[in-house]
Amino acid sequence: MSTDGERLRWVMARHDLSQTGLAERFGYTPGLVSSIIAGRKRISRDFAERLAGEFSLSLDWVLLGAGSPEAESVTTTTVPAHDRADVIVVPEICLCGRCKREVLRGDDWCPLCGAELMWPENGSAGI
Predict the structure, then answer these.
(1) 71, 62 Cβ separation under 8 angstroms
(2) What average pLDDT score do residues 35-59 get?
(3) What is the pTM of this model?
(4) Which pLDDT value is given to residue 83?
(5) pLDDT, tens only, 17-43
(6) CATH: 1.10.260.40, 1.10.3430.10, 3.40.50.720, 3.30.70.1560. Which one for 4-64?
């Protein structure tokens, strides 16, 4: 599913929602949902985050079509990191302090939200 509209249609079919039902559930207009499905508009980050949270979907999949639709379950430990953010740390993989996307140790920028990542000695990424 390469377009926002195809992914939105998939979510609607999987959860038995009409365009109006989906729009009402998240506080958007049916016209916006229709525009996303038709390819006239892109899904906003806010809408994508809300869809991902409500239906346990991967945010990367909702926004970019990357990976599989289902959010992966990862065992994590919350560690205080940089003085501006807490991050969840998994060895060699961390979550961006801003958008919570997985980033690999050594990345300078979050590929999803563009936040600059800081890697203190303990290996956790902050923004």
Answers:
(1) no
(2) 90
(3) 0.56
(4) 43
(5) 999 999 999 899 999 999 999 999 998
(6) 1.10.260.40
